[in-house]
Amino acid sequence: MSKARKEVVMQAFRKLDRSGDGVVTIEDLRGVYNAKYHPKYQNGEWTEEQVFRTFLDSFDSPYDKDGKVTLEEFLNYYAGVSASIDTDVYFIVMMNNAWKL
Ligand SMILES: [Ca+2]
Predict the structure, then answer these.
(1) What angle, rounded to 10 degrees, do the helices at 3-16 and 88-99 form?
(2) Domain range 3-99, CATH class
(3) What is the whole-number distance in angstroms between the Cα of residue 27 and the centre of ligand 1?
(4) Which of 29, 77, 84, 93 is the most buried (most CB within 10 A)?
């Protein structure tokens, strides 16, 4: 990823990592990510914990799925997303919208 892309990804990570310890956990998501709008929470299939865990799983490395997301894992995830986006400008707009940066 270009420097500009990395910067915006790191900005999103810092926003998610509310405790500031460099690892995003379920605790960090409380208050940042609203699980109550998730359709599986609304129909009673999942608890709030399950919604958070599933959300973390999408960033968590398949080799170390522990429900904790490090900056490295977060950057790796976005390196994959980034590969399919041509311009830095579009990538940054996408990140700003997704994370309300
Ligand atoms: Ca944290």
Answers:
(1) 10
(2) mainly alpha
(3) 7
(4) 29
CA of 87 to the centre of ligand 1 (A): 30
Predicted confidence (pLDDT) at residue 61 exceeds the cutoff of 90? no
Instruction: Find out whether 28 and 12 touch, Cβ atoms under 8 Å.
Output: no
The whole-model pTM stands at: 0.87
Task: Please enumerate in sequence order all residues whose Cβ is within 8 A of that of 21, keeping only pairs 6 or more positions apart, or say none.
Answer: none
List residues, by chain if needed, whose CB lies under 5 Å from ion ligand 1: 17, 19, 21, 23, 28
pLDDT tens, residue by residue, 9-49: 999 999 999 999 999 999 999 877 888 999 999 999 999 99
Rounded Cα–Cα distance for residues 10 and 22 (Å): 11
What is each CA distance from 68 to 40, 50, 64, 96, in whole angstroms? 22, 14, 9, 23
